[in-house]
Structure prediction request, 340 residues.
Amino acid sequence: MERVASWENLFAAAALARRGKSRRPDVERWWQDREGELRRIREELMGGTWQPGGYRVFTIREPKVREIAAAPFRDRVVHHALCRWMGPVLERRFIARSFSCQVGKGTTAAREACRALVNRHTHVLKCDVRKFYPSLDHGVLMEKLDRWIACPGVRELVRRIVGSFATGSGIPVQWFPGDDLLAGTRPRGLPIGNLTSQLWGNFYLDDMDHALVEGERHGAYVRYTDDFLLFGDDRRELWRLRGRVEEELARVRLKLAVPKSRLLATREGVPFCGFLFRPGLAPRVIGATKRRFHGRLRGLIGQRRIREASSLVRAWFAFSMEGNSLGLRRGLGRPGARRV
Prediction:
């Protein structure tokens, strides 16, 4: 806890939490008195009295409809301080092809790993976890984290952050063999808006990664959070591995999203991280991704929110340049282009 609550770590965490939010009035008010605010946070952390605040809940519709729970700014500072210490501890356990929430292992690195495996194999088992973040079981997560956290103070801090949010009744309970009626009351769910949720969500499936890569000796595997691919040339072997995946997910009270989890020939195209991959070809932007972008751009231009539209176009150019998208970018740049 002394490392988490050190002045150096807290100041660095505050700077990270402020990045991209410096124009928000509440953030600027906090930042003007940052020394006093950080002193209070440090005293609460060291004294074991820190408590998370309430979440601000809102809905986003890109890339799909999701409910986001945003923590207060001072809580986000604590989240960054905790992850600056905990991240390196947990990441040492991750396999090489586990991506997300790691320096140098974002979507670009995940796509490159996928592209290499698509060129090497004829089939892929594409898997997606049903309602991943809303279904993460608090008891299972704490049991996993407790194995790697020795400090009682940090354990209690993690327990309070995990317990500060729970999935509502709108998400159906997932039942497993051996469950009794009390299983329906198990607290579950992590808020998508928290930095800690990204790190812990990645760690939640780490045992499955090791079971597949080391236990099954199946190295042709790549995972980005809850979206993962198993490549191979033997369809029967991939179907067998699907059973192993379901077993490993059931251990942590999760299930596959059945419509999204399927066996594909790589020549058909493998959708992953917004692109479609085929052997020997540069990846192409998925059609649904293009339609979402153009729909959002038209909406911003119609509302005369030109600054936001410009930021969106710059982000789109940076994203689309990772694949075969020269025609898309040229079309976007033409005056009076139909889609814009």
